[in-house]
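To: structure desk
From: M.T.
Subject: fold request, one chain
Message: Could you run this one when you get a chance? Sequence is below, nothing fancy, just the single chain.
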Amino acid sequence: MAKNFVQPGNHITLTANGDVASGEGVLTGSLFGVALTAAASGSPFTAGVTGVYEIAKAGGEAWTEGAALYWDDSASSATTTASGNTLIGCAIAATATAATKGRVRLNGTVGA
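Reply: Done. Structure tokens follow.
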């Protein structure tokens, strides 16, 4: 292994820009993750940036399997609306309009 290898990067430590609850989606700059631990504002917390998570879903929209998903930071939810939002991954299952949560495979990359 390379001497400069640091970690696999599936879970990373970030600094909370506000209080963070475990299981909550968090956008730090253009990096999205799901908080694995709770933290007070200014404190470090661990976030999962790859894998499949069930997270808050924008109301009024249905997801299709494989649909690209974006994080709407102002609404703290995943959405199919790209404009003004950050790409976070894709839906792994169809999700009904009335559902408040959906399953997302995080892409582990910085969103655009």
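Reply (cont.): The chain has a mean pLDDT of 93. Let me know if you need anything else for the meeting.
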